Amino acid sequence: MIRIASSARMVLAVSLLAAFAFVLIGPLLNLALWSVAERWYTPFKLPVTYGTRYWEQVFRPTGDAMASLGTSVWIAVLTVVFALALSIPAGYALARLKLPMRALFMLMFLLPQAFPSVAIYINVARIFYQIGINGTVFAVVLVHAAHGLVFSVWIAAAAFAAVDRDLELAARNMGASPLRTFFTVTLPLAAPGIIASGIFVFLESLDEFTGTFFVGVPQVTTLPLLLYNAAMGGNYQVASITALILLVPSVLFMLFIERFLRADVLAKVGA
Amino acid sequence: MPTDLPNGPQSGASIAVRDLHVAYGGTRVLHGVNIDFTPGSFTALLGSSGCGKTTLLRALSGFVPVESGSIIVGGQDVAGLPPEKRGMAMVFQSYALWPHMTVLQNIGYGLKLRGKSKAEIAAKVSQMLSFLGLAGYEDRKVTALSGGQRQRVALGRALAIDPGILLLDEPLSNLDAKIRMVMRHEIRAIQQRLGLTAVHVTHDREEAMTMADRLVIMQAGRIAQIGTPEEVYDRPATAFVANFMGAENILPLRVARSETGATLTTGDATAQVATGAGAAQALPAGEAVAYFRDDVARLDASDAAAGEDLLVPGRIAARAYPGGVYRYRVEAAGRQITVDDADRHELGTTIGLRIPLQRLHIFPASEAGIAA
């Protein structure tokens, strides 16, 4: 009786795990399959001809894909620089200084996420048209940074708040000026959190679609826009390969978070 | 442990605190504190939590802003100066070692700020480490050290900058009992050798008494008493100090003055204090409260002759054996009294509680009400 119950539980556990794995890995497998399918049409369940022709096409130096990957990375890097330049001082102020209406400031950075993004970006695009920056990398960076600031500011504030005040006071006590203390003690100790927030902003920028679509098209083509065009054009191979490329940084980020970010920093996010 | 001195004996700086008021977010924590710290002295700030001792230390170091009053170090008022301009080195309760730096970088931090070369820093740190019994630990991560070792690195960091003043914020409270005993003596020995002015905050009475030349007992943001360990222990100025220094037994008394001296009455017991004893003049008249320690009273037969002592009849309510002596709880004069005695007595026995008069700390009942 007990044996039946335990084997039943075993079967249930295995099938649940299998279902979970299918949901998680199934779409990825499909992507991988599509990326090496040179010919695949109904009624075949599997590709008819396999090959790396589309990989070669995507990675050809003159190809659209490499150019838009370059654009995507360039925009992401600028977005990170822009977001960190704002979020390091803002995060420090929110964590350390006695700010009136601190909660309101924190909420303000959340605001761009609080409304339907299409509505916001249409208006942003209109304003950018009027001041003549629509279709520039700068405009796309601005839009991405506004989107990324909520994460970078909140995470930076959490990272600074997790630095023990006594560690800063010890540096002051040893004779360091406030600025020196910040650069030799506070910033290095908050660095893992700030780097994580930078990576997060980088990833958000890398696969941001809506904003780029409204303020960047047609002059600025990022990887997600290329993916969209490829998918709309029925070129599932290029779309799959692009999607797989977009996946790589996310996996690296997850590994970084797992390795370097302490639980006490994560616990303070948004607090 | 300390083998050789990293630098020759130097003179500590003097500190004069005048009418110091400190408030935290609208709540006044220090109400006009006046103390002088002479060069080379070791002073312990002692008090229960919330009494303001840590605030006083943090005001000295510049970590909390001063509301009014002055802190004069070597003739200059530093009350308005930031922490980095005060020339005081602090050892924190949490040690506050920088986890992203090695032992060398931690101890060398202050030297680097002072523009010392790499070689000079390495030499000084190595000297400091052998002085502290941690030779060869330069490249260790501070997170890999034990509590006692971290404590020494924290001390080394503070001493490396040759401060005139060493501030100690409960530095031993995170150590286990055995290492704490060793560190007490080490810190005291180092302070003596270097001639530093040390200010030590603690809530541990024994630690304060064994380390310091002078105790400052604080109560609710004010100084209750300043004196040598003997003075504070044997002649507490107030009921609070008596109680805090371990005289936890309380007997209500009535004091009647007369031509020949004074008469003390508690319950059925009386005792005479002769005028010649000198103590009689100091006694408050009327209702009073006497404080005394567990170890000054003895158990005697209830009908023994009182002699020079106060003999209060009582009954044994509880007994414990903490080792060496028996510890009794005695009901006498309507109070519960704790007494140590070498002999074993049965519960419920009627006894006489013998207390030498000179070991009683007697204060007017009105004042004692605050402490009890």
Automatic annotation (TrEMBL), chain A:
**Lineage of source species:** Bacteria, Pseudomonadati, Pseudomonadota, Alphaproteobacteria, Hyphomicrobiales
Query: Which Pfam families does the protein's record reference?
Result: BPD_transp_1
InterPro entries cross-referenced by the UniProt entry:
MetI-like, MetI-like_sf
Q: What is this protein called?
A: Spermidine/putrescine ABC transporter permease
Family matches, as CDD domains: TM_PBP2
Give the ABC transmembrane type-1 domain ranges.
69-257
Keywords (alphabetical) are:
Cell inner membrane, Cell membrane, Membrane, Transmembrane, Transmembrane helix, Transport
Similarity comment: Belongs to the binding-protein-dependent transport system permease family.
GO cellular component labels: plasma membrane
